[in-house]
Each structure stands twice: as C-alpha cells, then as structure tokens.
Design brief:
Layout: E1 4-8, E2 11-14, H1 15-37, H2 42-70, H3 72-77, H4 82-87, H5 92-110, H6 114-139, E3 153-154, H7 158-164, E4 171-172, H8 175-194, H9 203-219, E5 230-231, E6 235-236, H10 237-263
Antiparallel strand pairs: 1-2, 3-4, 5-6
C-alpha cells in the first residue's frame, strides 16, 4: 500500500484521489468517444459530458452520505471523526444512488435518450471502478477479513491505520483487488462482447447492474471493515442493496427486451 503518492513537507497528493481522478477522466473520455461513434451530435456530446461531471459530483456526495448513514450512531457520538469521511472513500451504492438522482435531473433537462446514453457509459463506469479500487488498495480502505489463505496482503502504514482503521501486521483478504479485477472483467465483457451484439437500448446498462450486484454480494463476505453497516443481522448494507438491484436489473432486462420485440 502507498497512501501518499507524492509528499512534500506537510503537503501530499493521496494515491486514492489520483486513481479516482484517473478513472473518472478515462471513463468520461471513452464514453464521449463511443458516443460520437454512435451518432450523437456535438451538442449532445457536450451535454453528456456535463451530465457525467455533475453525476460524478452527485455520486461523491451520495457515497459520503451513505457512509455516514450506515454508521450514524458512531458519528453522532464522535462528530469530530467526520473529517475522516472527507479523507477516505465512500459506499459505492451511495455513489450510485447519488449519481442516478443527479443524472435523472440532467437527462430531463437535456432530453437525452436515457437507455442509449446509459449503454455507452456503463462499461466505462466499471473501468472507472477498477482504478478506484486500486486507489482503495493504496489507501488501505475497504479491507478484508484476516485470512490464512496464503494469498492475503499485509498492511504496514500507520497513516492508513489512523485514517481508515486498516489492521496492520496481519494477512487480510485482498478485497480491494478482488473488487478491482472483477470490475475490469465486467468492463471487458460488456464493452467487447455484449456491446457489439447489443439487441436493445438499456441492455448494457442493466447487464452492468446485474453483474456488479452479483460480484459485490460475493466479495462482501470477505470484507472486514465494519463501517459498511449491516441489516437483518448478517447482511451488509451493500449486500442488501445488491439483492434489490439484482432483481431490478432482471426486471428491466426482460421489460426492455419485450418492448423491443413488440416494436420490431
């Protein structure tokens, strides 16, 4: 792990922030590039760029808010620790919800085709997450449970321990890398297998939600950070949301496919 990419005196650039920025820039650029290939005009490309930036900002806010909500009791008792929320990452599903709410507003404002834009963006959201999770690994957040599996990772940064509570000196499941490479696989499958064979608008977007909900649900079993929060005793907040999104994605995949069939 390497939480500080560059450090000069008291100034430093966090590695997490660098990877997140890299993922955002690359994801937006590839989305706009694909949009041009799909026939969006220059005005629409500008609107999609604006929508992406504002949705990302809404997503960042949503991820921080859900991080606070799932451990609200703790932050009410320790309000001073809210500063660490700014420094650390957030809960992805909070970011997804925040981004969707912001995106819906701008879709209506610009009158863009929701499903078609969602399809060109979805693979690159997964690619952005790949880089974001490399940032998580560098920062030590979203860490795994202790393991004796032989392929665990051991962290040693006191800075990471103080900021996000990363356990030091013991092997942990590399959940950040599990998240990263599952998202990279989702990107490759969506962009280079499903997208060229796309049969209806919205298919790629909801396939992304479908695949992500499955991988997230599974990897959550190996996570060790308790800040995620739990519902119904044993399910983490993200696992519960994964179950909901799994069935929502199936509903929309069948609904949009049937709608396409009727209009054919």
């Amino acid at each position: 792990m390497h939480p500080k990419l560059i450090e000069i005196g008291n100034f430093y650039i966090p590695t997490y922030g660098f990877f997140v920025a890299l993922g955002v820039i690359l994801g937006v650029w590839l989305t706009l590039r694909l949009g041009k290939r799909e026939g969006f005009d220059e005005k629409q490309i500008d609107q999609i760029g604006n929508l992406a930036i504002y949705s990302i900002l809404g997503g960042l806010l949503g991820s921080k808010l859900l991080l606070i909500i799932v451990d609200l009791k703790y932050y009410l008792q320790n309000p001073g620790d809210l500063i660490y929320v700014v420094r650390s990452g957030g809960v992805y599903y909070g970011g997804l919800i925040g981004g969707l709410i912001t995106g819906i507003y701008f879709f209506r404002k610009y009158k863009l085709p929701v499903w078609k834009v969602g399809d060109i963006a979805a693979p690159h959201i997964a690619l952005g997450q790949f880089f974001g999770r490399l940032g998580c690994f560098s920062a030590g957040c979203c860490y795994g449970k202790a393991c004796s599996c032989g392929w665990g990772v051991t962290f040693h940064s006191e800075f990471a321990h103080n900021v996000v509570g990363t356990p030091l000196g013991i092997p942990l499941y590399p959940t950040q890398l599990m998240h990263a490479f599952s998202n990279l696989l989702i990107f490759v499958v969506l962009r280079f297998y499903f997208y060229p064979e796309k049969r209806f608008d919205g298919q790629i977007l909801w396939l992304y939600v479908f695949l992500y909900s499955i991988t997230r649900f599974i990897i959550e079993f190996f996570r060790g950070d308790t800040v995620r929060g739990f519902v119904f005793g044993s399910l983490s907040t993200s696992q519960f949301i994964s179950i909901v999104m799994f069935f929502v994605s199936i509903y929309f995949l069948f609904k949009l496919k049937a709608k396409k069939g009727k209009n054919a």
